[in-house]
Automatic annotation (TrEMBL):
Keywords: Acyltransferase, Cell shape, Cell wall biogenesis/degradation, Glycosyltransferase, Hydrolase, Peptidoglycan synthesis, Signal, Transferase. The keyword Hydrolase applies. Residues 1-19 form the signal peptide. Pfam families: YkuD. Residues 70-206 form the L,D-TPase catalytic domain. The keyword Cell wall biogenesis/degradation applies. Belongs to the YkuD family. One of its GO terms (molecular function) is acyltransferase activity. The active site is at 166 (proton donor/acceptor), 182 (nucleophile). Pathway: Cell wall biogenesis; peptidoglycan biosynthesis. This is L,D-transpeptidase. It comes from Nitratireductor aquimarinus. Its EC number is 2.3.2.-.
């Protein structure tokens, strides 16, 4: 009887542990990782992270999915980006998304990764904002560049989608819909995501 009791207790403990893996709650939060960063000759300023809702701070969460580790899943509704990890976990980042009329969803792959990328506004954007015409040939990298410290370029079966996962100096935009369709992360977060992501990684963008 004693052996049976031990087995039952162990089974209950395992069930409790497994149930905990489906809660979606934070397992670790990286609130302290938003300080000043020196990178490739640039100095990214500290983000006043206390002014960003805690749910958008980088954190490891429980996340059940059939997608393989290394897959990126973007939840544009709740403004989260998940990098799938092993054992039912994911690294979750807060994001800013496209405003109404500029949303995009679908499945793509990361075809290129760039550090301190050049930003070239599309012709349609220049048509809406003629003042951007001066950057028709490309805006040099820098702290004010809209692509921030890193960019991951999304391609599908038709080629370049024109959409990117990229950094932004506008940390106040995280959690909001105000971009021209691209998915933006705080610069400290896009550097972290860039370092964890491989070329060819699958990206699923959900509305």
């Amino acid at each position: 009887m004693r052996f049976k009791s031990i087995v039952v207790a162990a089974a209950l403990g395992l069930a409790t542990a497994l149930a905990g893996c489906t809660t979606g709650g934070p397992l670790k939060v990286f609130t302290s990782d938003y300080g000043t960063v020196k990178d490739a000759g640039y100095q990214l300023p500290r983000i006043p992270i206390s002014q960003v809702p805690r749910k958008y701070h980088r954190q490891i969460v429980s996340y059940e999915t059939k997608e393989k580790p290394g897959t990126i899943i973007v939840d544009t509704k709740d403004k989260y980006l998940y990098l799938v990890q092993e054992n039912g976990k994911a690294m979750r980042y807060g994001i800013g998304v496209g405003r109404e009329g500029f949303e995009w969803s679908g499945t793509a792959r990361i075809a290129m990764k760039r550090e301190w990328p050049t930003w070239t506004p599309p012709a349609a954007m220049i048509g809406r904002q003629p003042e951007l015409a001066k950057w028709r040939g490309g805006m040099p990298p820098g702290l004010s560049n809209p692509l921030g410290a890193r960019a991951l370029y999304l391609f599908d079966s038709s080629g370049d989608t024109g959409y990117r996962l990229h950094g932004t100096p506008e940390w106040r935009s995280i959690g909001k819909a105000m971009s021209s369709g691209c998915i933006r992360l705080m610069n400290q977060d896009i550097i972290d995501l860039y370092n964890r992501t491989e070329n060819g990684a699958k990206v699923i963008v959900k509305r």
